[in-house]
Amino acid sequence: MKKAVITGERRAELAEVPDPRPKEDWAVVKVHVAPMCTEYKAFVAGHWSEFLGHEAVGEVAEVAQPGRVQVGDRVVVQPQYPCGQCALCIAGDYIHCQHSYDFVGFTGSREGSATMAQYVLKPSWLLSKIPDDVSYERASLALCALGPSFGAFERMGLGAFDTVLTTGLGPVGLGAVVNARFRGARVIAVESVPWRVERAKALGATAVIHPDDEEALARIMDLTQGTGVDCALDCSGSIKAQRLCLDATRRLGKAAFVGECGEALAVKASPDLIRTGITIAGSWHYNLNQYPKVMQVVQESPLLELLISHVLPMSRIQEAFETSASHECAKVLLKPWE
After folding, report:
1. In whole angstroms, what is the distance from residue 207 CA to residue 158 CA?
2. Which contacts (CB < 8 Å, 24+ apart) does range 83-89 have?
3. Are 4 and 31 in contact (CB under 8 A)?
């Protein structure tokens, strides 16, 4: 099979590798769409990588034994390789599993673990079936485009009477705007890239504030009659944005972080938590039992097509990475067989 690899600073190409084989309850999926996510960071930095991608949708191509899926099923390939047996996995919170599979130890090779490839190997219980009326392109948005913010909004209980602040309007942040608007919530956003500012406005954001605006917090307070937002969601992974989320959240409000960040955020228990009464949550993905609700957004949101800015054949992987790294895009979808 063919797969995408990063071979140097701003250099990507295709490589030919062996096809993965099914084993026990793990099925081989022929990838029809592989959405791009944060892999562009390795592309820009020149970090050599031959196992790229964690999002995919496709068709079950081969199984080793009868199970939850059969050949021909159209499926969303959920991320990670959790054990499927611990309390977290059983409850649907598999994303937080502490006993993930040793992929190489189980299969004998790393091939099949990357989604920017023509085939991927996955435990069958992580293959969520796609409704007949949903295209592969739209179904692919049930992963990182909509997933992180959907899980966060479920935890925060975001509803139609709420105002939510969303910081960082990459594909995940733009997906948060779609999710929030589907719930009827009002959106205030923070973003610096003009392309993404305009896309957020097209999605229905009430206001988009530049992160370098020294009056950003004051503007948010003005837009909320001086009380602050009901919920805040950081999708940027920026310390500055996380701090803004905490400062802009109203008393007894809720904030969640989905943007990955390796730096330390200074949080003081008394002024930030005790006296404000706000709740802070870390959120990575949605509970697997919420998949039908996520698919309802995919099926019914009139804004969904605006989340897809580029659909490219994987044969143009260099162009795809350059597009993703430009930030002048929403979700970029790869077609591995083109």
Report:
1. 18
2. 84/123, 84/125, 84/126
3. no
Residue 129 β-bridge partners: 75
Using alpha carbons, select from 115, 184, 55, 130 the residue that is nearest to residue 298.
130
Is 2-130+303-335 in CATH node 3.90.180.10?
yes
Please tell me the distance from the alpha carbon of residue 78 to that of residue 139, in angstroms, as a whole number.
12
Do strands 119-123 and 186-190 pair parallel, antiparallel, or not at all (unpaired)? unpaired
pTM for the model stands at: 0.96
Residue-wise pLDDT for 77-121, tens only, equals 999 999 999 999 999 999 999 999 999 999 999 999 999 999 999
CATH topology assigned to domain 147-282: Rossmann fold (3.40.50)
Domain with CATH 3.90.180.10 in the chain: 2-130+303-335
Tell which residue, 96, 98, 149, has the closest CA to residue 257.
149
Do strands 279-282 and 331-335 pair parallel, antiparallel, or not at all (unpaired)? unpaired
Convert the pLDDT of each residue in 322-332 to its tens digit.
999 999 999 99
In angstroms, rounded to a whole number, what is the distance separating the alpha carbons of residues 140 and 149? Answer: 15
Most distant pair of Cα atoms in the chain: their distance: 60
Q: What residue has token string 């975001």?
A: 158
